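Sequence, please.
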């Protein structure tokens, strides 16, 4: 691994030295062909402002437009060059990359100025993508695609492909429209290349090739997009006209974003926090749930207070409280994660949900039985060997611990499954509403079970 990192560092340093050299433009561009754009982008970020400004005249807008998409916060680099130069770079980018780059520029007036300086087609594409909300498919599509008409011959289709590929390099799948420009299918590039000149185009069109509506929700569409596993999928407007495509890379980014949001939601947040988020914004996101959980925590503490007599009589039970609560919380979180995954299938029936709840309870019960028996044995050995309890007393306490663990894990599996299903039913995001709530409810159930059993079976007997 160290050797690999060393090779990477050496490669980046080679590119840095190359970019800082006095080499002519043509010679430098030819030398950079040996490196991937991602590596060039990393080297570009390591240069100082003066070097980067000098490089615009050498590399040109077209090459920089291939490098900039690999830079995470490209906005600051766009502001280092003139607005006209920045607009040249942006209009050479894919429209979705240009939109991402513009979002990195905080000044709204500056963003609008750059869009106006771009050529008419490029600015129109950017405005089209920006017209969709960030949670809609249209906001992450690209306008880099090839489209032909269904009444073309194979020869005409090839000519059109070659002509359009000068401006669009997303050519593995060619989309087909009818005379009214409505989407009607797709052709794989390989099939078009292998087709004979006299082959009717209709013979190689896949009329069942999937598509997605531009105003569809990203979160609702991810599973469908993943299932088809295509290089790209056409994005249609309300008239079934192709206005863009969503690529496999876009899908990967969407899945990554959704996972990040879900992890944040499981923690009780409404969205992912980033490094640039202000302190008040972070507090505003977290405090509502924390206030709710504070209230529930006070309820749990009050319940524990009811069992003061149990604690006073059998103080040792307090030692194992965290064991019961932690295991209940872990099981509830596991069931929650599995349930949210299952609920992504919108077609799951009520009967299937009921079977799923029972299955999770069986899983929790089986695991609880195994862990409860282990706790029964090891807690007894601990109390007898290290605390000098008599065997009767040691096994009495460990029996309560083991049985409470068994019950708590069954109940936690049920709660961790039924709460997200309930919230999903009432159209509330289960990831947001379930995580912290399940943990707190499980604590309450586990406390009542544990101390209740201890009060019934141990007080007055030890």
């Amino acid at each position: 691994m160290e050797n690999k990192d060393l090779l990477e560092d050496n490669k980046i340093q080679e590119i840095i030295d190359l970019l800082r050299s006095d080499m002519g433009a043509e010679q430098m561009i030819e030398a950079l062909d040996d490196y991937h754009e991602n590596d060039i982008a990393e080297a570009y970020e390591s240069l100082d402002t003066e070097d980067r400004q000098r490089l615009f005249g050498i590399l040109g807008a077209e090459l920089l437009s291939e490098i900039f998409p690999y830079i995470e916060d490209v906005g600051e680099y766009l502001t280092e060059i003139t607005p006209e130069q920045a607009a040249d770079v942006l209009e050479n980018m894919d429209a979705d990359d240009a939109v991402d780059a513009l979002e990195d520029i905080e000044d709204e007036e500056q963003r609008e100025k750059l869009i106006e300086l771009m050529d008419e087609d490029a600015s129109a594409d950017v405005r089209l993508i920006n017209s969709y909300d960030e949670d809609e498919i249209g906001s992450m599509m690209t306008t880099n695609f090839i489209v032909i008409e269904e009444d073309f011959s194979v020869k005409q289709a090839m000519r059109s492909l070659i002509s359009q590929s000068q401006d669009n390099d997303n050519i593995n799948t060619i989309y087909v429209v009818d005379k009214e420009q409505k989407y009607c299918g797709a052709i794989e590039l390989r099939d078009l290349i292998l087709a004979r000149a006299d082959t009717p185009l209709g013979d190689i069109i896949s009329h069942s090739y999937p598509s997605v509506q531009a105003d569809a929700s990203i979160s609702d569409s991810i599973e469908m997009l993943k299932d088809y596993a295509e290089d790209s999928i056409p994005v249609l407007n309300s008239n079934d006209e192709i206005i863009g495509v969503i690529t496999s890379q876009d899908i990967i980014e969407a899945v990554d974003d959704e996972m990040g949001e879900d992890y944040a939601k499981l923690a009780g947040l409404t969205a992912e926090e980033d490094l640039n988020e202000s302190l008040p914004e972070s507090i505003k996101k977290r405090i509502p749930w924390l206030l709710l959980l504070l209230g529930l925590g006070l309820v749990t503490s009050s319940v524990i207070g009811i069992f003061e007599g149990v604690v006073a009589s059998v103080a040792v039970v307090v030692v194992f409280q965290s064991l019961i609560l932690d295991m209940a919380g872990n099981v509830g979180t596991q069931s929650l994660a599995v349930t949210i995954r299952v609920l992504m299938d919108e077609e799951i029936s009520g009967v299937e949900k009921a079977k799923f709840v029972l299955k999770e309870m069986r899983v929790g019960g089986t695991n609880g039985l195994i862990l409860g028996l282990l706790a029964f044995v090891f807690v007894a050995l601990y109390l007898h060997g290290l605390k000098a309890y008599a065997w009767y007393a040691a096994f009495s306490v460990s029996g309560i611990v083991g049985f409470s663990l068994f019950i708590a894990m069954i109940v936690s599996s049920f709660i961790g499954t039924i709460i997200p299903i309930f919230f999903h039913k009432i159209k509330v995001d289960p990831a947001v509403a379930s995580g912290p709530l399940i943990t707190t409810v499980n604590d309450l159930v586990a406390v009542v079970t544990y101390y209740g059993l201890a009060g019934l079976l141990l007080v007055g007997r030890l």
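The longest helix spans residues 350-387.
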